[in-house]
Amino acid sequence: MKLTRIIFIQLTVFIASCTQAQNKNTAKPNVIIVFIDDEGYGDVGCYGATGFQTPNIDQIASAGMRFTNFYSAQPVCSASRAGLLTGCYPNRIGFSGALFPHHKTGLNPDELTIAEMFKGQGYTTACFGKWHLGWQKEFLPLQHGFDEYTGLPYSNDMWPNSNVTGERLPRDKGRGSYPELPLIVGNEISETITDLKGQDKLTTLYTEKAVDFINRNAKNPFFLYVPHTMGHIPLGVSDKFRGKSEQGLYGDVMMEIDWSVGEISRALEKNNLTDNTILIFTSDNGPWLNFGNHAGSSGGLREGKLTSWEGGQRVPFIIRWPENTPEGTVCNKLACAIDILPTLASITNGKLSDNIIDGVDITSLWKGDFKSEPRETILYYFGKNKLNGVRKGNWKLVLPHKWSSYNLQPGNDGRGGKRIAMEIEKPELYNMMRDPGEQYNVIESYPEKAKELMVVVEQAREELGDLNVGIAKGKGNREIGKLKKIEADEKDI
């Protein structure tokens, strides 16, 4: 009788373990994307950061995979976020540059966002951080697939205060006419941030919101998007990290962001969700170099934010997906932020939009199949639909264009330095494997490669246009979202 009972207990445990394994294998994964502002390729420990450490982010890389040729959708705020959330090159959907408080445009409701893709599968969704895809109600996150939102509707320097002292500027001076910086909860302004002290709390606030969301949704599949305000200027950091790094305020900010990632990881572990959660860490574009010691590092890449050189768009990308992504691996294949949506849709059997998108499924790379090459090319669009370059494999063709260079004396302590207008008048060719810093133009030595890449250029111009050669639009461009009506008594927030 005793033996029969033991056998019964063992059989029960075995069936339970099989059921748990089956549920684990069939359950759709939770997804978290941590999206940093203006963090450069060299601003994470495992990418070579100096003057501060990022142990929590590095641990994710040790338990997962980091990419060395991952690109943001464009080298500037709004456009890069539009690309991430829709899987499209931003210029395809009408986005260029950064939206300001006076703009009355935003993300078109006809575009399917990553949050809406997850909502279609019964996921709970949340966004805590900087939105920057339109500040009016119809453009805010709750109208684009998110169940919860807390954060700033645009960049934290779009306020009427000095980015150096935090003092109120005269209304007739620079951004002195801007509205107060709003912190939005849901669709409503919860409070306004009126000094630098108010900015110090943002990283901790978003982190606490994220942890609370994970705790409340431990039994539901969820998608959590954490687009941090930092390290965009003006830099803000809590007292628990102020003065802690060797690098100064920017290093302090990066240390707090690393802490934030650690808190999110611990919340997953506490709720036994680590093994069934895809955790992604990346940046919206490269560092804003002319702010000197208040800016990040491009890690030796050329230039930074607001340019189509590598420092503007090549960014850190780390993914942890237990039992799927091989631990401690490095992927050197091409990938882009616009690939995240179609990849997650593929993994979770989510439905994509009927609209054409530019992202490709890179699941094979996330699973360690480095023989596959799902993405063949990268298009470097910037400004008002200007195609400044293309990359195919290890080769990058830089097209004639103008840009503002950082190669002068940078600013310090929140003050921007001088930039110089630059232009290249003839195409230039760079070998990204041998020369990631883009120092040696080898177009005369490899004319056949330049010709090969020009085929990509012509295809891109036909599809999406190129104002550098006078083509305003291609056959595939769609309109940015516009306010359906503007109330007579509407006031800009």
Explain the overall architecture.
With 493 residues, this protein is an alpha/beta fold. It has 2 domains: 30-375, Alkaline Phosphatase, subunit A (3-Layer(aba) Sandwich), CATH 3.40.720.10; 380-481, Arylsulfatase, C-terminal domain (2-Layer Sandwich), CATH 3.30.1120. Helix content is 26%, strand content 18%. It has 11 helices and 20 strands. The strands form 5 sheets. It has a 10-stranded mixed beta sheet with strand order 8-7-6-5-9-1-10-11-2-12. The chain has a 4-stranded antiparallel beta sheet with strand order 14-15-16-19, covered by helices on one side. Helix 6 (202-216) runs parallel beside helix 7 (249-270). The longest helix is centred in the first third of the chain and has 25 residues, at 2-26. It is globular and about 55 Å long. It starts with a helix and ends in an 11-residue tail after the last strand. The model is unreliable at 1-25 and 487-493 (pLDDT under 50).
In short:
With 493 residues, the protein is an alpha/beta fold. It is built from eleven helices and 20 strands.
Keywords:
ten-stranded mixed sheet; 2 domains; four-stranded antiparallel sheet; Arylsulfatase, C-terminal domain; 493 residues; disordered C terminus; disordered N terminus; Alkaline Phosphatase, subunit A; alpha/beta; 20 strands; 26% helix
